[in-house]
């Protein structure tokens, strides 16, 4: 395609380092969509005769069919997806194919294809996130009143409900989706028509191609259009944040599924056995979701480093934007699917959770609050008294609710029988009715609200 000024073709190593067809074949359908829009515009503006534009468009349709049928022959000698498709178009329709590249360069072509691909992927990820939120919200509604220990510093802190815990993730994934929407609206400008870097002398209609391809408008600077990959960086950043969220949930599932916690069991569909230890049920899917955050963050780092200090406009370095991105976003999609399945299938052991919720003096704050409310003590003083009661109970290796009234009155004589009501974990959870709190009625309302929102 570009051999005119060369006496011989590239060396074997040059071909190997240069070729991108091994991965950019994934852009085939976007490339065809972009080329069809470009051809239509060339015909409409009279830059190319209408009949030629039509022949090009028909040829591209045929190539799309071949690709979908798996009969298209990708060739490394043809370097990348753009030249593979153009070469095939030439085979199909002859020299007219050569008119397609009028007023265009592979630089704006690849910028366009990748934008289209990232945009499609954002839409698909958004739907998957919605599915995961749905699975979480449904579980949350079922477990709006199931008590479990809430932790800070991985130490029992205060009892919460399992539903409340799951809804925390629904919020995180909602922010991930909002970030995706935001990134999508920023990337939704068409770089097509920037040509190699400077624009073109042909009377192209960039607004037309932008519209046909579903963009809000054409990009406003041709240099930026071919040099920019921050739409990829932004998407990978969002993917990395989302992967972090997934990894935290995955880690919790790994912990919860241990016999030591025993809070949840994973279904057979999402567990694996051991080839040597017959008793094992391993949470491999959760472990892999936890681990894949590493490669997603890696892809973001790799592209940040590729981009750093690159002069304008296009440099071949930019070809390195693709493999890591394909891998990262594919991995994220897989993680979302696995997590959605795991969450939907998991069963909670309510009695194990409840017993654990009562360990570690998790209702000590309720006792301190009771002292504030009932005896009108400053919180700090109530905190101190409670601390002493916890120390006494701990010395006897028993729970706070197992202290006698007499034992408590040694520390604070005004404590009455009524205190025992707040020492129960169910009461503790039920009392946390502040907006965003863990009280079952709050959790139920939030879960219902999410299910309603997600249905739309
Ligand atoms: N395969 C190239 C890429 O992914 C396409 C653009 C090539 N442009 C060029 N001037 N060599 O970036």
Would you give an account of this structure?
The chain has 456 residues and is mostly helical. The chain is built from 19 helices and six strands. The protein has helices at residues 12-18, 21-24, 28-44, 50-69, 81-93, 106-142, 162-187, 206-212, 222-227, 230-256, 284-307, 322-345, 350-358, 364-375, 379-395, 405-411, 420-423, 425-431, 440-455, and strands at residues 147-152, 155-161, 189-190, 217-218, 264-265, 347-348. The strands form three sheets. It has a two-stranded antiparallel ribbon with strand order 1-2. A two-stranded parallel ribbon has the order 3-4. The longest helix has 37 residues, at 106-142. It is elongated. The mean pLDDT is 96. Arginine (ARG) binds at residues 20, 24, 80, 106-107, 110, 314, 316, 318-319.
List the helices and strands and how they pair.
Blueprint lengths: L11 H7 L2 H4 L3 H17 L5 H20 L11 H13 L12 H37 L4 E6 L2 E7 H26 L1 E2 L15 H7 L4 E2 L3 H6 L2 H27 L7 E2 L18 H24 L14 H24 L1 E2 L1 H9 L5 H12 L3 H17 L9 H7 L8 H4 L1 H7 L8 H16 L1
Parallel strand pairs: 3-4
Antiparallel strand pairs: 1-2, 5-6
The site of arginine (ARG) has 10 residues, from helix 6.
* Quaternary structure annotation: single chain
Strand line-up across the major sheet: 1-2
Q: Low-confidence stretches at least 5 residues in length (pLDDT < 50)? A: none
Mean pLDDT: 96
Morphology: elongated
Brief digest:
This protein is mainly alpha-helical.
Feature tags:
456 residues, mainly alpha, two-stranded parallel sheet, 19 helices, 5% strand, elongated, binds arginine
């Amino acid at each position: 395609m570009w051999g005119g000024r060369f006496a011989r073709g590239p060396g074997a190593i040059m071909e190997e380092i240069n070729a991108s067809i091994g991965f950019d074949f994934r852009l085939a359908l976007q490339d065809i969509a972009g080329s069809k829009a470009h051809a239509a515009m060339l015909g409409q503006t009279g830059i190319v005769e209408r009949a030629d534009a039509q022949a090009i468009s028909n040829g591209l349709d045929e190539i799309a069919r071949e690709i979908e049928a798996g009969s298209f022959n990708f060739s490394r000698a043809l370097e990348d997806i753009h030249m593979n498709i153009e070469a095939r178009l030439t085979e199909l329709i002859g020299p007219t194919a050569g008119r397609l590249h009028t007023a265009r360069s592979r630089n704006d072509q690849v910028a366009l294809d990748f934008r289209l691909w990232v945009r499609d992927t954002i839409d698909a990820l958004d739907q998957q996130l919605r599915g995961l939120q749905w699975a979480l919200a449904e579980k949350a509604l079922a477990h709006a009143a199931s008590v479990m220990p809430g932790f800070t510093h991985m130490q029992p802190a205060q009892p919460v409900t399992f539903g409340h815990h799951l809804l925390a993730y629904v919020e995180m994934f909602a922010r991930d989706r909002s970030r995706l929407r935001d990134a999508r609206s920023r990337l939704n400008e068409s770089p097509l028509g920037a040509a190699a870097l400077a624009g073109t002398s042909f009377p192209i209609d960039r607004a037309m191609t932008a519209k046909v391809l579903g963009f809000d408008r054409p990009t406003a600077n041709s240099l930026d259009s071919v040099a920019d990959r921050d739409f990829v960086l932004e998407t990978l950043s969002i993917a990395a944040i989302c992967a972090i969220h997934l990894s935290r949930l995955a880690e919790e599932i790994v912990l919860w599924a241990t016999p030591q916690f025993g809070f949840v069991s994973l279904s057979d569909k999402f567990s694996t056995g051991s080839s040597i230890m017959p008793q094992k049920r391993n949470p491999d899917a959760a472990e892999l979701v936890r681990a894949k955050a590493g490669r997603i963050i890696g892809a973001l780092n790799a592209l940040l480093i590729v981009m750093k200090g690159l002069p304008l406009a296009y440099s071949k370095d930019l070809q390195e934007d693709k493999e890591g991105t394909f891998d990262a976003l594919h991995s994220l999609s897989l993680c979302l699917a696995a997590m959605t399945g795991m969450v939907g299938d998991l069963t909670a052991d309510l009695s194990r959770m409840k017993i654990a919720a009562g360990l570690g003096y998790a209702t000590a704050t309720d006792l301190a609050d009771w002292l504030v409310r009932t005896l009108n003590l400053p919180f700090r003083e109530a905190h101190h008294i409670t601390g002493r009661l916890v120390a006494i109970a701990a010395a006897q290796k028993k729970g706070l609710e197992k202290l006698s009234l007499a034992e408590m009155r040694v520390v604070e004589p005004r404590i009455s029988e009524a205190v025992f009501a707040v020492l129960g974990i169910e009461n503790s959870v039920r009392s946390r009715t502040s907006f965003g709190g863990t009280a079952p009625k709050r959790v139920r309302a939030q879960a219902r609200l999410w299910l309603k929102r997600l249905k739309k």
